[in-house]
Fold these 2 entries.
Entry 1:
Amino acid sequence: MLPYSVELEALRRIPPRVFGILMSLEPAVAAGAGLAVLGQPMGVVQWAGIGCVVAASVGATRTAR
């Protein structure tokens, strides 16, 4: 409940473009936290997948009118 409430409050306060980019970074942050806190390494394919998600979101945001 708390993360959802914080996301809704952030959506009200920051531009939607910025919010979209921040949401696309969540998988990368979660993967980094999993590596740092839990010691769960990810392979090159998984990191490439996360990179594709982030790049697609940034590209969609930059080309939106």
Entry 2:
Amino acid sequence: MDIDAWIWWLIGAVGLGIPLVLTAMPEFGMFSVGAVAGAVTAALGFGVVPQVLVFVVVSVALIAVVRPIAARHRGGGPGIATGIDALKGRQAVVLERVDGNGGRIKLAGEIWSARTLDTGQTFEPGEQVDVVDIDGATAVVM
């Protein structure tokens, strides 16, 4: 049984698509698209050399163009702080005296237990404090 070249290219495209699914490496998908382009070239009646050249050119072009675009989107630019990371650096108002042993503050509209960073320091109700860290459910302030 003699199988046409374009069928071999499609088998190669499927073969390259399997590692794409298993490893989530987009490069395999780009090689798979290159193999489909090789299959189209073979179906149009071109020889082996043009088929391989089309496969290489399409694959390399996709890697050169798509990969940097995907990397930019994956990086996403500066991250947005969420959760307790978003609370660090914010200001709070002292509700109950805060010292090295504890106290209460109002932070981001919620009441938090707090303690000072420096154990010898104290803050009285109404004072503004800066949150430097979150230790469990306790804000560390200064």
